[in-house]
Design brief:
The chain has a domain of about 60 residues. Helices cover about 65% and strands about 0% of the residues. The chain is rod-shaped and about 110 Å long. The N and C termini lie far apart (about 110 Å). It has about 110 residues and is an all-alpha fold. It holds the Pfam family UPF0449.
């Protein structure tokens, strides 16, 4: 069978890009933990470049890591504030105990 006798596969047409209103609705409905990217896809040659796709995947991974680290830092900040208050209370208690010992030895 030659290549001339093979049937040619017809691809469906591309859908229309979303309107500005649809994009804004999607962005406003997204969770705060979802990273948002603004890309210029006007140049189709960029999409065919594997290096560019890999770079975008790398940036997406970095963004996810950033969000995770930011959430961890918020949790650690709360823990540090709690421990700071506990240390201040312990320091005040220690100063009171030292003062009581001074008065008792006099």
């Amino acid at each position: 069978m030659t290549s001339r006798t093979k049937k040619r596969i017809v691809l469906p047409t591309r859908p229309e890009p979303p309107s500005i209103e649809q994009i804004l609705q999607d962005v406003h409905g997204a969770l705060a933990s979802d990273p948002v990217f603004i890309c210029d896809f006007s140049d189709d040659s960029l999409l065919s470049n594997n290096a560019t796709v890999c770079e975008r995947e790398k940036q997406y991974g970095q963004s996810c890591n950033y969000v995770d680290m930011n959430n961890k830092l918020k949790e650690i900040l709360i823990q540090l504030k709690t421990k700071s208050v506990a240390l201040k209370c312990a320091g005040e208690k220690l100063e009171e105990d030292i003062e009581n010992l001074r008065e008792a030895t006099m």
